[in-house]
Amino acid sequence: MYKYEEIAEDIENAINDGLLKAYDQLPTVKELCQTYNVSKSTITQVINELSNRGLIARRRGSGMYVKSIATEADSYWNKYNQIVNDAGDDARGGEKPVTIEVYDFNVVQPEPAVCRALDLEKKSFTYSVTRGRKQAGETFLLEYIFIPLELAARFKYEYASKPIRTFIERNLGLKIGSAHKSVRAVMPTTEERARMQIAYGTPLLEIEQIGFLADGRPFEYILSHYRGDKYEFRTVDSL
């Protein structure tokens, strides 16, 4: 976790714990620099992060204030910029453990669209992983993952049921930089309907994601298919 993320999390915890309430004014940039012993550029990143999370509002010439929505009793916006279980299944009976089932693990020549996304030559090879995430015995997410062979030659089947990014950072010693995402609705295949046990005509929420290393190289291409009858994407825009 970067320093600015640690500071942003510390301030978010202060909001969640009630130490900072709705409409409270945050310390100035100078005061935050002194409190956390960091540079102005780091605090600027902190402010942008808190703003992107929908926790603060900036008033020109006045300062930064905690938004009322950040301390609402209604937890609807406690999760943002991510996929959320809109059906509320996560909240009933507490958070249930998630398991990963690997359906397919191969080395393939991917389709041209995947090669373009990963900046690969047409006849390049990638690892291809198809897997499902389950909660309480129900498959709520199907993932189709492609990783360049030349980048991750040590990738094995045992890693396919674990977080891919953990392998990239811990096993390969590479630093992850960013991810580009697109969100759309798609119809499931017959196989997907069977695996997710959903009715004919139920759409899926598709997240297309390209992950980039800190040096700009793409390291993963993922299509994530969530149950469209239970999941939605929530985001907060800074206007």
Task: Describe the protein in words.
- The protein has 239 residues and is α+β, with helices and mostly antiparallel strands.
- It has six helices and ten strands, in the order αααββββαββαβαβββ.
- It has a six-stranded antiparallel sheet. A two-stranded antiparallel sheet has the order 1-2.
- A hairpin with a 2-residue loop joins β5 (126-135) and β6.
- It is globular and about 55 Å long.
- The two termini are 27 Å apart.
- The model has no long low-confidence stretch (mean pLDDT 87).
Order of helices and strands: HHHEEEEHEEHEHEEE
Largest sheet: 6 strands, antiparallel
Mean pLDDT: 87
Beta-strand content? 25-35%
Keywords for this structure?
10 strands, alpha+beta, six-stranded antiparallel sheet, two-stranded antiparallel sheet, 239 residues
Write the layout of secondary structure elements.
Blueprint: H1 3-16, H2 29-36, H3 40-52, E1 56-59, E2 63-66, E3 82-85, E4 98-108, H4 112-117, E5 126-135, E6 138-148, H5 164-171, E7 176-186, H6 190-196, E8 204-213, E9 218-227, E10 231-234
Antiparallel strand pairs: 1-2, 3-10, 4-5, 5-6, 6-9, 7-8, 8-9
In short:
With 239 residues, the protein is α+β, with helices and mostly antiparallel strands.
